[in-house]
Write a structure and sequence with these properties.
With 106 residues, this protein is an alpha+beta fold. 32% of the residues lie in helices and 34% in strands. This is ABM domain-containing protein.
Length: 106
């Protein structure tokens, strides 16, 4: 499994709006894709800004390319998300999941 990680910042109101976008638009799209294995949205509030981190889980690089296109490192940020974020990464990172206690308890 591969974890795809992306980060952004927002105001508190923007972070709330992004959560709505994520649950209402992004997740339904991801769930329809073969090879998508789950997603997390993390939030950390502090000093008038909110840090957001999205982690999506994928079966393979091929599954990621079906979502993101041929350049897997380019972030997919819809215009609705751009409208509520202060700043966001243009690229993502990918890590191979080597221990997964959710799906395979050790």
């Amino acid at each position: 499994m591969i974890a795809r990680v992306w980060r952004a910042t927002a105001t508190a109101e923007g972070a709330d709006a992004y959560r709505e976008h994520f649950t209402g638009s992004v997740l339904p799209t991801l769930r329809r894709l073969d090879g998508h294995r789950g997603a997390y949205l993390f939030r950390r509030d502090g000093d008038g800004r909110v840090e957001l981190e999205v982690m999506t889980l994928w079966e393979s690089g091929e599954a990621i390319r079906a979502f993101a296109g041929t350049d897997m490192a380019t972030a997919v940020v819809e215009s609705e998300a751009r409208a509520v974020l202060l700043d966001y990464d243009e690229t993502v990172s990918h890590q191979t999941v080597v221990v997964d206690t959710v799906n395979d308890p050790v």
